[in-house]
Amino acid sequence: MADQAEGLRNRQDRQGQDDPETSTPRVVSITSGKGGVGKTNVTANLAFVLSETFGKKVLVFDADLGLGNMDVLFNLRPRWTLRDFILEDRPLSDVLVPGPAGIRILPAASGVEELTALTPQQNLKLISAFDHLSEDIDVLLIDTGAGISENVLTFNLASQETLIVVTPEPTSRTDAFALMKVLNRRQSGKPLLFLANMVRDRREGLELFDLVSRVADRFLPDLNLSFAGYLPQDPSVTQAVRNQKALSEMLPGAPFSVAVRQLARDLLSRPPREGIRSGIGLLMKRLLSPRQDGRPGLSEDA
Ligand SMILES: Nc1ncnc2c1ncn2[C@@H]1O[C@H](COP(=O)(O)OP(=O)(O)OP(=O)(O)O)[C@@H](O)[C@H]1O
Ligand SMILES: [Mg+2]
User: Fold this and answer.
1) How many CB atoms lie within 10 A of CB 293?
2) Is 237 in the pocket of ligand 1 (CB under 6 A)?
3) Is residue 1 part of a domain?
4) Which range is most confident: 3-12, 88-97, 236-245, 264-273?
5) Considering the domain boundaries, does residue 57 fall inside one?
6) How many Å lie between the centroid of ligand 1 and the Cα of residue 247?
């Protein structure tokens, strides 16, 4: 741990505006223990803002493999989906769909059971395809399904940072804690960022974070958990969903949209964890290479 921390610090010291290392794609997964807490809305809005406001080249991967609905949220009608890439060998470039503000979306298939658990070969195929794209991406956002299924864990392990979306509901807190526990066991020290959603204000967001981190301090002392920010409960979010637009595009002045811009700003100001020029594919390959127990991810003592 001390070595890792030192390595990170040294890298941060070396990073300047024109250091090519800072242009390495950043891979952020957006996840949760409990379903329906706002992951897809957070991803869509973050993607829009990162592109529109901060000028980043953004790719959104809808990794809710069997039940993806990112395309619905953006009112897109993809001709092909991940299914065509994985099962029918359609090139990834055909499957990517242009969204608002220049973002690109890799749509998941909906209702395709074969995709709910990718095989290691299918994972590798996906990873190599991302590798070819990595020069053209600043930020890859991965919207995962909820829970602790192998797919969800795989994509969370393959990202550099994981945003865990938590709402004030007690079940959201306990499920988030369960997810953190499993992720920490697979990849100790991995940066987990706590995002409080549907709260009244920053204060309630921080209180929620406090509740969870106090339990974590007690039971998971090596958990690397920090507060990423909060997003307010905002009725306009539902309105935007109905209009099939990101709220940040529909109403940039809405409290939720303002908070998303702050979240994006804070995210970009964090030094990227892996300052390597490996590209997304190599990064994922390293993170997903099987451990001794055959599961993907870094071994516990890595
Ligand atoms: N900050 C917010 N304020 C008000 N409503 C919100 C907010 N965030 C999300 N919602 C609402 O919560 C519902 C669920 O959101 P969303 O689909 O993004 O969740 P999810 O975590 O992706 O769900 P799933 O686990 O099914 O993939 C939506 O109807 C959305 O409008
Ligand atoms: Mg979702």
Assistant:
1) 9
2) yes
3) no
4) 236-245
5) yes
6) 12
The reply to whether ligand 1 has any atom less than 6 angstroms from the CB of 170 is no
Choice from 29, 31, 32, 37 to test ligand 1 binding pocket (greatest atom count within 8 A of CB): 37
Is residue 285 within 8 Å of 296, Cβ to Cβ? Answer: no
Q: How far is CA 118 from the centre of its chain?
A: 18
Q: Where are the alpha helices (DSSP H) in 89-234?
A: 92-95, 120-133, 150-158, 170-186, 202-219
CATH of the domain at 103: 3.40.50.300
- Beta-carbon-side half-sphere exposure of residue 45 (alpha carbons within 13 Å): 30
Residue 230 lies in a domain: yes
Q: What distance in Å separates the CA atoms of residue 30 and residue 227, rounded to the nearest whole number?
A: 14
Residue 242 alpha carbon to ligand 1 centre in Å: 12
- pLDDT the model gives residue 300: 38
Task: Using the atom order of ligand 1, give the atom closest to the CA of residue 238.
Answer: 31
Structural domains of the chain, count: 1
| CA 240 to centroid of ligand 1, rounded, Å | 11
Does residue 88 sit within a domain?
A: yes
Query: In the chain, what percentage of residues exceed pLDDT 90?
Result: 59
Domain of residue 102: give its range.
Answer: 23-288
Q: Which atom of ligand 1 is closest in space to residue 198's alpha carbon?
A: 1
Report residue 21's pLDDT band, with 50, 70 and 90 as the boundaries.
very low
Q: What is the pTM of this model?
A: 0.87
C-beta of 258 in contact with ligand 1 (< 6 A) = no
pLDDT attached to residue 13: 36
**Ligand 1 within 6 A of CB of 34:** no
Question: Counting atoms of ligand 1 from 1, which one is nearest the CA of 236?
Answer: 4
Supply the mean pLDDT for the chain: 84
Of residues 204 and 119, the one with the higher pLDDT is 204
Torsions phi, psi for 267 (to 5 deg): -65, -45
Ligand 1 atom index nearest CA of 256 = 1
